[in-house]
Every structure is written in structure tokens, then in C-alpha cells.
Amino acid sequence: MELILIRHGESEGNAKGHVYGHTDYPMTKKGMKQVPIIVNMINRYRINKVYASPLIRAKVVAEAIGLDRNISIILDDRLKEINFGKYEDMPREKVVELVGDKYNEIIGFFDHVALPGGEHQDDFLTRVNDFIDELLAGDDGTYVLAGHFGVIKAILNHLMGYDKKALRQFAIKPGAIIKLTINKDKVRMDELIQTFDSVDRISLL
Predict the structure, then answer these.
(1) What pLDDT is recorded for position 197?
(2) Residue in 2, 8, 119, 158 annotated catalytic
(3) Whole-angstrom distance, CA of residue 23 vs CA of residue 18
(4) What sections of the sequence does the record tag as coiled-coil (predicted)?
């Protein structure tokens, strides 16, 4: 089985520097320019199904892939980003002001923290893991998962055992593409492609 994990392109929430998960921000102009680049980058793969978070920033990417391949997309709430609760859609600086040294725990995914008014990090990991386990129990094939930063980190943790420290080595920027090959109990990361900086390079040509 092959999984192609895609983080949505730059969103207005990214551009504002806000802490957000369920806030349904659209993509910026730069984010929209990343979409055809993403579609082109995965053209060489024979895709069986396209799954996506229903949040618009991920859904738009999935719809573009589905249109290109004439494949209906499947939306699944389990691929939504974490809900940050009372910290949702706050500027990062404001969250730091409120929580101080606990900021990294609040915005992390592996510290067993309950976010007031939002999700417990363990519940977030459980729903993502349940989706992946269900997918792995099904038919072999190549599957696209269009989602979010936290969702991709959760999948890499679940399938490859990468913890908080190990995941720091990966720059999973908006528009990142990660391809995994799964063969029995072995998981291999074949590619990590960034499209975030490609937009700037193209605009300079």
C-alpha cells in the first residue's frame, strides 16, 4: 500500500500566524497557486482513492486531484486538524501570553494535554489512528490523504513511531507532500516534497 499525505497549501490562518485547527480558513493566493503544483507532482502515481478533511483548505486540494483523475473524493471528519478550543484562532503571541512555557504543549500533539473547550490530544490521535487502521485493513492500493499539519504528524507517529523530538527534523510546510510505502509491518518514507517555496521560484521566472 502507498499513502500520499498532503498538507493543504498556505491558508489565511497560516499567513496571520494564528493558532487554529477547526477554524475554516480558505487558502491565500499563494496557497491556491500551490494546488496545481501539488496535482502535477503526484501525476506519476496511479491513485485509487482520495480522502480529505472536510475543512475547505484541505478539501480544495482534494477536489483538484479528484477532478484531474476523475475520482470522487471521500471526506472524513477524522482527518480534521485538532480543535484548539479556547486558543482557537488566536495570534500565537496571545497564546504565549496566556500559557507561557506551556505553549509548546498546547500546540503539540503528543503531550496528553486536554485543550479547554477543544479536544484532548489523545482523542485527536485516536481518531486519526482509527482512520489509518481502517484504511490499512482494506484493499491494497495508492491512497491520497489531504489534510493538515497535525494529522500528518499523527500518521507518522502511528506508522513509523516518530515522536515529538524526531518529528522536528521534518519541515512539513503548507503544501508538503509525503509518500509512504507500507509492506506488511514495514513503512518506508519515499519522498518529502515541499511546494511552499516553489510558488516563489515560479513567480521569479
Answers:
(1) 83
(2) 8
(3) 10
(4) none
Q: What is the DSSP string of 53-120?
A: -SSHHHHHHHHHHHHHHT--EEE-GGGSPP--GGGTTEEHHHHHHHHGGGHHHHS-SSS-PBPTTS-B
CB of 53 closer than 8 Å to CB of 81: yes
CA distance 34 to 167: 23
Question: Which residues on neighbouring strands pair with residue 181, listed in sequence order?
Answer: 2, 188
Length of the chain: 205
The 3-state DSSP class for residue 168 equals coil
Binding site residues, as ranges?
A: 7-14, 57
Q: Are 144 and 151 in contact (CB under 8 A)?
A: no
- Convert the pLDDT of each residue in 176-200 to its tens digit: 999 999 998 899 999 999 998 877 6
Domains of the chain, start order: 2-11+23-84+121-204 (3.40.50.1240)
Mean pLDDT to the nearest integer, 51-66: 98
The reply to whether 191 belongs to the active site is no
Q: Is 8 a catalytic residue?
A: yes
Catalytic residue among 2, 18, 81, 88: 81
State the Rg of the chain over Cα: 16
